[in-house]
From TrEMBL:
InterPro entries reported in the protein's UniProt record: AAA+_ATPase, ABC_transporter-like_ATP-bd, ABC_Transporter_VariousFunc, P-loop_NTPase
Classification via Gene3D superfamilies: P-loop containing nucleotide triphosphate hydrolases (3.40.50.300)
Keyword terms, alphabetized: ATP-binding, Nucleotide-binding, Transport
ABC transporter domain segment(s): 5-231
Name assigned to this protein: ABC transporter ATP-binding protein
UniProt source species: Dactylosporangium darangshiense
Keyword ATP-binding on entry: yes
Domain of life, source organism: Bacteria
């Protein structure tokens, strides 16, 4: 099966700033993929390259096997994009926006968008500027989903939403994924909320890929070991991603470690794993599915 997104040696530079460096990616289709990383890690840059709004400085990126800058109506129709600020024309009514969407997109499914908005009690005759922030996000999402894209790209869709609006937004998104089997790629800072909705994770750190893996596999491969304080270099421990020491104990987050006598083992949470990789500045090895 063709990957939803593949990149090879992908680099992007803005003047003297390298936003992405030598990124290799192979993101499977039909998954909900979270893109995580600290401020300035390169997430927006990667998403804009994915939707063809930017071109690589060097290296390549393909979406479903084609360059996203091809710009044919067919290629563009396969990708939906919700930008970070999801701008809506504030003086337009929701109905105007749907009309606009239908005239610009060859696969636009207006009845689908109307049904979604009706189920959320968002009136079609209301001006976009008079909607709450959560409702505006829902309208932007309904417009993006009505394109019936094969890949939906969302840049920090949750950042401006309160917890209730966040939950509603994610429910709408998950409903669409279940119904249409689309691939979703979205960036976020909120790691603990991702485990419920995502099944694949990409972590960017300082323009480089730190993690690119299936979340279930990632959690199977990592664990926390706690034992007597020591400087451990035992190969049985696997790869030590992060070590913390108290007066009497050492706690290790390890990848592919075996059970060791005298050490207690605990499963690692997704946030533990992500933060350990970010703090340690390490990259996942590339043996993903081999584990
Ligand atoms: N138009 C631009 N001109 C110059 N530098 C830029 C431009 N856009 C981004 N950068 C730089 O590229 C790097 C990556 O930025 P990017 O916006 O992709 O990161 P991000 O992970 O999305 O950050 P955030 O989480 O803060 O939104 C940063 O150092 C940023 O300052």
């Amino acid at each position: 099966m063709t990957d939803a997104l593949s990149a090879s040696g992908l680099c992007k530079r803005y003047r003297s700033t390298w936003a992405l460096r030598e990124c290799d990616l192979a993101l499977p289709a039909g998954r909900v993929i979270a893109l995580v990383g600290p401020n300035g890690a390169g997430k927006t840059t990667l998403l804009r390259l994915t939707v063809g709004l930017l071109s690589p400085t060097s290296g390549s990126i393909e979406v479903f096997g084609s360059s996203p800058t091809t710009n044919t109506p067919q290629a563009l129709a396969r990708i939906g994009f919700l930008a970070q600020e999801h701008p809506l024309y504030r003086s337009f009514t929701v109905a105007d926006l749907l009309h606009f969407g239908a005239s610009l997109n060859i696969r636009f499914d207006r009845p689908l968008a109307e049904k979604r908005l009706a189920s959320l009690d968002i009136p079609l005759n209301r001006k976009a500027g008079a909607l709450s922030g959560g409702q505006q996000s829902q309208v932007a999402l309904a417009l993006a989903l009505a394109k019936r894209p094969d890949l939906l790209v969302l840049d920090e869709p949750l950042s401006s939403l309160d917890p209730v609006a966040r939950r509603e937004f994610l429910q709408t998104l998950m409903g669409a994924v279940a119904q249409d089997g689309i691939t979703v790629l979205f960036s976020s800072h909120v790691v603990h909320e991702l485990e419920r909705v995502c099944d694949y994770l990409v972590v960017l750190n300082n323009g480089c890929i730190a993690i690119d893996d299936d979340i279930e596999t990632l959690l199977e491969r990592h664990k926390i070991l706690t034992g007597p304080r020591s400087d451990v270099h035992d190969p049985m421990l696997g790869t030590v991603i992060e070590a913390t020491h108290s007066d009497r104990h050492t706690s290790l987050l390890v990848r592919d470690g075996a059970a060791i006598e005298g050490w207690q083992e605990q499963p690692a949470g997704l946030e533990d794993v992500v933060l350990a990789y970010l703090r340690g500045g390490v990259a996942m090895d590339r043996t993903k599915a081999a584990a």
